[in-house]
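thread: overnight batch results

M.L. [08:02]
morning all. the overnight job finished for the chain we discussed friday. pasting input first so we're all looking at the same thing
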Amino acid sequence: MPKGVAWSNEETKQLLDLRHAGKTISEIAFKMHKSEQSVQKKLQRLGLKVVHPEDSNETTTSLIVPQELPSIEEALKTLVAAMKILEKPGISKIEILRAKNLIHAAGAYQGHLANYINYCKIERDLMNLKEKLDQMKPKDAGPGDNANKGPSLPSDKNSAVRRRNVAKHETKQSKRASLRKP
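M.L. [08:03]
and the structure it wrote out:
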């Protein structure tokens, strides 16, 4: 097998810098205009561990739970940004996969957010019905009288947070709707 062009000291330094910055073999190869095989072999010759993503059981990111849910508008902006990435010529396979995953995730998020909003509205309506039912109860019913007791509904911290999130989302939606009206 014929050998390629030898690596210069500058290229080796650039390779090490990119690898220590957490870049993948594909990203390094693209940036340095070398083949993935060439980058992989050089890393092996330098004694650095070469990990293939499909062979690794470790993840490269951690899950960060946001305090507030992104709006549908923010999800749509992410969707458009990913579509713009795909419009660029010459993007790497990794960037294509990343953009496609973002598009899929944004679409899934919109569906889950819609379900969540519907659930919160149903929960709020049930709470309102329970309040009305409590108001309709006879005043002379004693504390031990369970005959007129309505269904117990969730009143925990999570349901309060959900009601606040729905109220915020509805406020945002109504503001946007009022801005669009001529």
